[in-house]
Design goal:
Helices cover 55% and strands 10% of the residues. It is built from nine helices and five strands, in the order E-H-E-H-E-H-H-E-E-H-H-H-H-H.
Length: 203
């Protein structure tokens, strides 16, 4: 590992709760890490939150150390974005198993390749988005999700709210939508609709 003037921060992860983090932690300690962030859950949310905490502890000139690249990232796509973010922040990366050390001239090649993959992924996303928008325009739509209810559906919900005692949940199920969608079209639900009718009758 090339010498670095900043601090060394470790990141360790296991995919299931019954796996042991100790070997990774011991290796990271041996590599000079005093501060280590760990994830012992398989969920993407836990991984993302801990990774953000780790990034918050890192500053330009510091080094992030992992025992292997698959401990840092859950996918090749994610690895590209992580590497690009580290490079932009001036943070070095060392992966013990792959012998990657971006503080060396040879290791900088990793950032170049990973950045190219991240850009490739962005280009694919942009291309798919543009193709979807073009198709939507061809079909007479302006893009985005289609409305949950058309005009007839809205009127049907209105009649069921005002003319039946069915619950919001039952009305939503009848139309294949969520109860929250009913409230989106009719804020306040049945009570608000009833009050509106009363006001119309008194004017």
């Amino acid at each position: 590992m090339e010498p670095t003037g900043g601090k060394k921060v470790g990141f360790a992860r296991v995919s299931t709760s019954d796996q042991n983090l100790d070997p990774q932690i011991a290796r990271l300690r041996a590599l000079g890490c005093d501060e280590i962030y760990t994830v012992k859950e398989s969920g993407a949310k836990a991984h993302s939150e801990t990774l953000e905490q780790c990034f918050s502890a890192l500053q330009e000139g510091d080094m992030l150390i992992v025992t292997a690249l698959d401990r840092l990232s859950r996918s090749q796509k994610q690895l590209g974005f992580i590497a690009e973010r580290l490079k932009d922040a001036g943070i070095e990366l060392h992966s013990d198993r792959e012998k990657i050390d971006t503080s060396s001239a040879m290791g900088q090649m990793f950032y170049t390749i990973a950045g190219a993959f991240a850009q490739f992924e962005r280009d694919l996303i942009r291309e798919r988005t543009q193709a979807g928008l073009a198709l939507a325009r061809d079909q007479g739509r302006v893009g985005g999700r289609p409305p949950a209810l058309d005009d007839d559906g809205i009127e049907s919900v209105r009649q069921m709210l005002s003319g039946t005692t069915l619950s919001i949940k039952a009305i939503a199920a009848h139309h294949g939508i969520k109860p929250s969608t009913v409230y989106k079209y009719f804020p306040g639900g049945r009570a608000a609709l009833s009050n509106s009718k009363k006001q119309e009758q008194t004017t």
